[in-house]
Design goal:
The chain is an all-alpha fold. It contains seven helices and no strands. The protein starts with 5 loop residues before the first helix and ends with a helix.
């Protein structure tokens, strides 16, 4: 079995840590420290994990404002916490990480949603990102 890409593992961990932060409303430093202490961080691009976690939390309002016009069926407040965390990560990568190709961001978000989200929620995440990505980047 091939080893999982360290950035993929960083995104997986970021989804879980952001989910924890969203639910607990605990201080980010505490969420990050307890996550790193409790989780197996083997094979994780730890620097990228920390960037995603801190970047999403620091930019939550901006990311949610970018997302809101593209949520045709519901508001940001009505999203499931996993889907919200994944959309925030994808929007962070689209806006702040020009080195990550547009298609990679979308594919990673879909894969994360298939792993962590509700059944068929990947279709919703894909639909939102397909609409919003071209407004942020040309490719």
């Amino acid at each position: 079995m091939a080893s999982v890409n360290p950035r993929r593992r960083a995104r997986e961990c970021a989804v879980q840590a952001i989910y924890s932060w969203q639910i607990s409303k605990n201080d980010l430093v505490d969420v990050e420290a307890s996550f790193i202490a409790e989780q197996d961080m083997k094979g994780v691009d730890a620097k990228y994990f920390k960037e995603l976690l801190n970047g999403v939390v620091k930019n939550t309002i901006d990311l949610d404002n970018k997302m809101a016009p593209y949520l045709t069926e519901r508001s940001v407040d009505e999203l499931g916490q996993i889907e919200l965390a994944i959309l925030r990560i994808a929007l962070y990568e689209l806006t702040k990480r020009q080195d990550v190709p547009y298609k990679v961001v979308i594919n990673e978000a879909i894969d994360l949603t298939k792993t962590f989200g509700a059944e068929d929620s990947h279709k919703f995440v894909n639909g939102v990102l397909d609409k919003i990505a071209p407004t942020i980047r040309t490719r």
